Automatic annotation (TrEMBL):
GO terms for molecular function: FMN binding; NADP binding; NADPH dehydrogenase activity. It comes from the Bacteria. This is 2,4-dienoyl-CoA reductase-like NADH-dependent reductase (Old Yellow Enzyme family). Residues 3-339 form the NADH:flavin oxidoreductase/NADH oxidase N-terminal domain. The keyword NADP applies. Keywords: Flavoprotein, FMN, NADP, Oxidoreductase. The lineage of its organism: Bacteria, Bacillati, Actinomycetota, Actinomycetes, Micrococcales. PANTHER family: NADPH DEHYDROGENASE C23G7.10C-RELATED. It comes from Conyzicola lurida. Its cofactor is FMN.
């Protein structure tokens, strides 16, 4: 029976345990577009000190127009590499592995960040305030956002190339793994789902953009480093993809060099409703794992050590992703280990706390 604190090997990377930090948008690049800074070093470093096995970064755009907000992180330019290297060095020094989530927001990009105290939320940033025209599978808008331009064949080909170039930069920046954001209604997901991809050209082949992106990334990413794909394994939309559909897709992704599926759900269309309860996305992860044979991670209101441990022990997923709970308690992994009677290697400079 696998333990939450057993290591997990993905290609040449051995992740120390199965407690992972889920990607969470931070909207914290407030200087040069896409350039991370000291705040990111502190933010990601705290999780490493707290004992998380793998930390997945916020959505990091492969093109300027692929940002969710103007304050998003990026890897579309070589000037982004050195700042990210500062972050990865800090995480490695504190004992954890780190993956970058590469993303293109598609029609859901270019919005106001909506942090507490901000004047606007859930609407598009106008051009005179730093916004841009987004691109989508079609010209249909998401909710209250501005309508995108329908992506041309050249736009989509350029996006594939941008993901490949960002993968090369991710290696230079010292990342241990890449996660491709193919979930939550962003561009890769938008083309993937029958609900949103109603095109009538060659890109009506719904899996094409994701599969070509995986191939481009794998070609620019060392063979010894793992590649993860985040999927909304259930679209939570009438006529959308189901966990069984996602399992079939995962099989093809595995053949192209994907090593793990990070299982989430929803985000495709505005107004979709579902009950978010502790572990509500675990069944999808279990289905993908069982039918595809690929390792999975599960996310979704997982907060207690006992619950997290049971997910891994029962074989529903190979790792658990924690988001908001990690923000509340960056040392969750160490506290969970203590609660479960497991001894984690301590931080030597903190030896007084562990004596």
């Amino acid at each position: 029976m696998t333990s939450l604190f057993d290591s997990l090997r993905l290609r040449d990377l051995t992740v120390a345990n199965r407690v992972w930090v889920s990607p969470m948008c931070m909207y914290a690049c407030e200087g040069e577009p896409g350039v991370v800074g000291a705040w990111h070093v502190a933010h990601y470093g705290q999780f490493a000190l707290g004992g998380a096995g793998l930390i997945v970064t916020e959505a990091t755009a492969v093109l300027p127009e692929g940002r969710v907000t103007p304050e998003d992180a990026g890897l579309w330019g070589d000037d982004h590499v050195a700042p990210w290297k500062t972050v990865t060095d800090a995480v490695h020094l504190a004992g954890s592995a780190i993956a970058v989530q590469l993303a293109h927001a598609g029609r859901k990009g270019g919005k106001f960040r909506g942090l507490p105290g901000d004047e606007f939320a859930n609407s598009s940033v106008p051009a005179d305030l730093g916004g841009w025209t987004t691109v989508g599978a079609t010209g249909e808008a998401f909710g209250r956002y501005d309508a995108p331009a329908k992506a041309t064949a050249d736009d989509l080909a350029a996006t594939v190339a941008a993901f490949g170039a960002a993968a090369r930069r991710a290696d230079e920046a010292g990342f241990d793994a890449i996660e491709l954001h193919g979930a939550h209604g962003y561009l890769l997901h938008e083309l993937l789902s029958p609900v949103t991809n109603t095109r009538d050209d060659d890109w009506a082949s719904r899996e094409r953009l994701l599969l070509e992106t995986v191939a481009a990334v794998r070609a620019n990413w060392p063979q010894g480093k793992p590649l993860i794909v985040r999927l909304s394994v259930d679209d939570v939309a009438p006529g959308g993809l189901t966990a069984e559909d996602s399992a079939s897709l995962a099989t093809r992704l595995g053949e192209l060099g994907v090593d793990l599926i990070d299982c989430s759900s929803g985000g495709l269309v505005a107004g979709a409703e579902y009950a978010a309860t502790p572990g509500y996305q675990v069944p999808g992860a279990a289905t993908v794992r069982r039918l595809s044979g690929l390792p999975t991670s599960a996310v979704g209101l997982i907060t207690s050590p006992e619950h997290a441990a049971s997910i891994v022990a029962e074989g529903s997923a190979d790792a658990v992703m924690l988001g908001r709970e990690m923000l509340r308690n960056p040392y969750w992994a160490r506290h969970a280990a203590s609660a479960l009677g497991v001894s984690l290697p301590g931080v030597s400079r903190y030896h007084r706390a562990h004596a």
